């Protein structure tokens, strides 16, 4: 999803939509719900958001707040 670059799957970030409909980073990789993988890159996340890749993956509109929190997570992890 996103840029189409290939990364080691272990370095990918799993985004999950849980049973309550919340979209968040799955830090454990084990949360229940529909998941989507994204590169650990803010630009890739933004590309995915602009192309509606996240909405397609989750079959629901993705709120800006969810995007912001995922973006914060990626930035914190990138340091
Ligand atoms: Zn990417």
Descriptive overview:
This protein has 79 residues and is an alpha+beta fold. The chain has one domain: YlxR-like (Hypothetical Cytosolic Protein, Chain: A, 2-Layer Sandwich). Helix content is 38%, strand content 16%. The chain contains three helices and three strands. The chain has helices at residues 42-50, 53-58, 64-78; strands at 13-17, 23-25, 34-38. A hairpin with a 5-residue loop joins strand 1 (13-17) and strand 2. It starts with 12 loop residues before the first strand and ends with a helix. The model has no long low-confidence stretch (mean pLDDT 88). Bound molecules: zinc ion. The site of zinc ion has 6 residues, from loops.
Question: Which ligands occur here?
Answer: zinc ion
| CATH domain class | Alpha Beta
The SS-based structural class is alpha+beta
Residue runs with pLDDT of under 50 for 5 or more positions:
none
Mean of pLDDT: 88
How much beta, percentage-wise? 15-25%
Helix fraction by DSSP (H/I, runs of at least 4): 25-40%
Order of helices and strands: EEEHHH
The Rg value, from CA coordinates, equals 11 Å
* Side-by-side strand order of the widest sheet: 2-1-3
Distance between the termini: 23 Å
Shape summary: globular
CATH architecture: 2-Layer Sandwich
């Amino acid at each position: 999803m996103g840029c189409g670059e290939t990364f080691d799957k272990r370095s990918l970030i799993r985004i999950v939509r849980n049973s309550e409909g919340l979209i968040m980073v799955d830090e454990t990789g084990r949360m229940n719900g529909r998941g989507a993988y994204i590169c650990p890159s803010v630009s890739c996340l933004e590309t995915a958001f602009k192309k509606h890749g996240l909405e397609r993956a989750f079959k629901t509109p993705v709120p800006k707040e969810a995007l912001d929190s995922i973006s914060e997570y990626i930035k914190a992890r990138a340091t």
